[in-house]
Amino acid sequence: MDFHTTSWTVVFEAADTRGGRAQEALADLLRGYWRPLYLLARMRGCPHHDAQDAVQGFFLHFVERRAVKRADPALGRFRAFLQVAFKNFLAGEFARQQAQKRGGGAAHLPIDDTALADLEQALAAAPDPAVAFDRAWALAVLDRATERLRAGAEERGEAEVQRVLARFLERHGTDASQAAAAAELGLTPGAFRVRLHRLRAEFRRLLREEVAATVTDPHELDAELAHLQRALAAGG
What we know:
- By secondary structure, the protein is mainly alpha-helical.
- The protein has one domain.
- Helices cover about 70% and strands about 0% of the residues.
- It has helices at about 10-15, 20-30, 35-45, 50-65, 80-90, 95, 115-125, 130-155, 160-165, 175-185, 190-210, 220-235.
- The longest helix is centred in the middle third of the chain and has 27 residues, at about 130-155.
- The radius of gyration is 20 Å and the shape is elongated.
């Protein structure tokens, strides 16, 4: 089963199983969306290092203890469920863990200094905590789709082509800039436009798959995509 073509409902329904792809898929989601959780911890008053610890601890709590079994189906969007679950974790389990050694050496989330600096900057500029969280979520979705786009190009041996085309993924650019990029790749302007059109279509497909993986009802997909676009626009 390819997680990227399923909804997280599959993970929810399979949460009682031992091992298997459901837990792997759930862990993948959490790794992908640690940034909004870190931001949420900071917005709720956790110092920098405590916020990192909280995300690491929540990751373990969520996966190892299968906290997903307590999900409320009414919170159909994974984004909404994570917010509630993480707030509860901060108020309960994490408070009890504070006496333990920081980090614990058990979790391995991709918390890097550059990403943390960007989040701290977003936090300082946030007009509204809810807006900041949703923008961080939206950026995480875009990052996951972009990474899959890059990985797919690498598998096809087209990493350099994708790197050049990606400059124009979200903007058209001038005719001159596209012509220069086409020449860089040894393509005619027409062939370049065709490849760019295909890349944008592939990115839109991957983005829809990423969002589809975070809703329980396929009918929520378009609404969640619209929410993502509003969140990005609100952040400037």
